[in-house]
Structures are given as C-alpha cells and as structure tokens.
Amino acid sequence: MNSYKNILLINFGGIGDEILFMPVLKGLKKEFPDSKLTLCLEGRSSAFLKLTDLLDSYFFVDIKTKNKYLEMFKLYFKALTGKYDLVISSGSNPLISILLFLTGIKTRVGYSSSVISKKLLTYPVKLNKKQYASEMYYDLIKPIVNTEYELPHINIADHAKMPHSVLIHPGVSAISVSKSIVKTITPKKWAEIIRRLLKCGKKVHLAGGPDDNDCITAIREELRSEDLTNFTDMYGKTKNIFDLAELIKKSEVLVCSDSAPMHIGVATNTKTVAIFGPTDDTKLLPKSDNFVAIKNNVNCRPCLWENRQTTCQNLYCLDISIDEIINKICL
Question: Is the pTM of this model over 0.85?
Fold first, then answer.
C-alpha cells in the first residue's frame, strides 16, 4: 500500500456537498495520518471550512461563473505546481480526468464515467448514484484505504440537550431560489408547524441564515398576534455556520428542509426531521431512525436532478402533511 504525503481533493458544490464529503477526509487522515490534505472547493462553500479540522490547506475554484475556463486553468495550475502525489476528484465529467492526467500527478482517482476516464485514471471507480451520496463519495477512496465508512461528523464539544427543544430552520440557499428551485413549504405552513409544536409542549427555536430573511419575515408576520410562550426567535443570533451547528447540537430535534442545516443535523447526530419535495431523500439522508424524511409520495417525485434542473409549477410533492411532522416529534 502506498503512503501518500500530499493529497489534493476536488469537490465542487454547496456546503451540503462538502459535509457529505467529510468521511473521505476522515478516511484519508486515518489511513495516512502524516499526509497533507488540500481541498479545492467553490467559494460559495467557504463557510464549510469552519466545520472541519481535517484540512491542511484549501483553495477556491468557481467553475459556475462566466469565467469558468479561467477558473479551470487556475485548478490546472494549482494541481500542476502543488507537488501532489495523489489527486481525488468527485466530478464525473470526462474532461476532469483529462485535466488530472495533464497535471502529471502520479495517482489519479475518480469515477469511471467514460472510456477516457477508464484509461486516464489510475483508479477508475464505478459511479453508483443509487445510495446515500456520502457513501457514493467514499467509494472513491476504497481502492486505497482499509478504513470503514463512517457518517459525516462535525467535531463539536458535547452539550447538554435543551429539554423539549425543537429547532426550526425553514430556509434553503439563495442559489436554489435564483434558479427557480423550490424545495420547501410556505411560510404559512412553517408557522402552523410552530403553533402545533408549542401546543404539544415543545420549546421552539427559529433560526436561519442571511438567505432566509424573506422566509423568516413572513413566518414572523404569521405569528405576530399570537401568544408565543416557549418560542425563541434566534434569527440573526447565530453569527456563523459553526454557531448554527452548536445550536443544532444542543437541540433535541431539528426540523428543516433539504438544505445544508439538514446535513449538519446528520453530522451532529441530532434527530432530524427533513421535508423533501422534488429531491431524492434516499440519496441525501442516511438510513436511520434518527433521520426522518417527510415527503408526499406522488408518482412524479423525485424529479429534481433526475429529470429536471428546475422544479415544476404544480409542486404536488410539497403538499406535505403537517400532522405527519407533528406525530414524529410529539408522540
């Protein structure tokens, strides 16, 4: 077995994608404890860096901008001059394998998505999308490590759980909204969930990030004239993603959409009740009684990323039963 000293990892996507990739970092550090790990990621996921202590260095490549070719050249130059002896890429585009080959890095690992990839990669790995995405990423390092897969884990000191606490995080990323991707229920329904949880004796906290201002404002308006004993509005009080992760860790239950906070819930081993619309919960949540997907099993879902790049106008998949959510928490 080779002992790799300087490892480059390439994983593009949002914060959730980086959290799903964490077991790869941990597996490599376990197998090669003296190795230096460098992660290439998108600038929009920079907050992820506050959630891990496994990286030695990083750099950003923003391939989804109008300057994507210049950004790809930046990746090529960094890989060419970084003196890496191993590179692992989660991208399935055959052009990635060509770029990695041209860097001269001796050991190249990626998905065998084409004839070109199979010829140019040292370890072409079969891409199996029909599993939890984190395990799909972990398949990449199985040819070079003996360590077993573990769920994503954020290293946060243990905190006593706040008794009877439920954290509501209703938002999704601004990039989803800008691309007409609807993955969550309406503020009116979120407000009703809060009412019902308070009625059954829960202490409810509401949180969100900068992208969630409109949603939070609408929820506040829905609840404006009501008795909100045992309700705490935490919006704006978590200053960064690590603060949010600590709050999730302290909560008994997290209720959220398919979003980065859902992945933080998994990575802090917090009971998570996640609302799924057009996306595939089997790929985004591990199989566990602790992580519950709430969904409307209409025939057309999941469609997002499988058949479509935006959500449809009907949104039948988001006709979610509030009773089901409440029953998972209050019974």
Answer: yes
